[in-house]
Amino acid sequence: SNAKVILYARVSSNTQKDDLANQVKYLEEQVKEYDLVITDIGSGLNMKRKGFLKLLRMILNNEVSRVITAYPDRLVRFGFEILEEVCKAHNCEIVVLNQEDKTPEEELVEDLATILVSFSGKLHGMRSQKYEKVKKCAEELKN
């Protein structure tokens, strides 16, 4: 088949462009034969990254035989197992060269902060609804 071998590299911000180049260089050194390099600059939490979406569409179209990346979280911060299952279903293998992540701690901290902010927003929304219900009940009890 003409399914492609794809190298995937990602960094979270423009300030890490050197790191992106190094990632690509490392992947190219480790994998002699490949068809395409896909790179992204953006959070591993962001599933709408241009490169990642392109990769996903190709996988879903059965155009990819293998995705090779340096670390699991280069592809996704969470949900790696889901991505693996999707790949399996489309005859594609994910190859991770290093299980231990050597990415900057700031990136993890940024991602965690993002999660906290989004959760606190949800919790606040939930709380205010519950609060309104409780207030309503309290008022009804008074009457």
Q: What is the secondary structure topology, with strand pairs?
A:
Blueprint: E1 4-11, H1 17-30, E2 36-41, H2 50-60, E3 64-69, H3 72-75, H4 80-89, E4 93-96, H5 105-142
Parallel strand pairs: 1-2, 1-3, 3-4
Structural summary, described in words:
With 143 residues, the chain is an alpha/beta fold. Helices cover 54% and strands 17% of the residues. The protein has a four-stranded parallel β-sheet with strand order 2-1-3-4, with helices on both faces. Strand 1, helix 1 and strand 2 form a beta-alpha-beta unit. The termini are far apart.
Descriptive key words:
4 strands, elongated, 143 residues, alpha/beta, four-stranded parallel β-sheet
Order of helices and strands: EHEHEHHEH
Radius of gyration: 21 Å
Can you count the helices?
5
Distance between the termini: 75 Å
Shape, principal axes of CA atoms: elongated
- Please tell me the overall pLDDT: 88
The biggest sheet, with number of strands, parallel, antiparallel or mixed sense and barrel status, is: 4 strands, parallel
Helix content: 40-55%
Secondary-structure-based class equals: alpha/beta
Number of strands: 4
| Uncertain ranges | none
Tell me the fraction of residues in β-strands, as a range: 15-25%
* Spatial order of strands in the largest sheet: 2-1-3-4
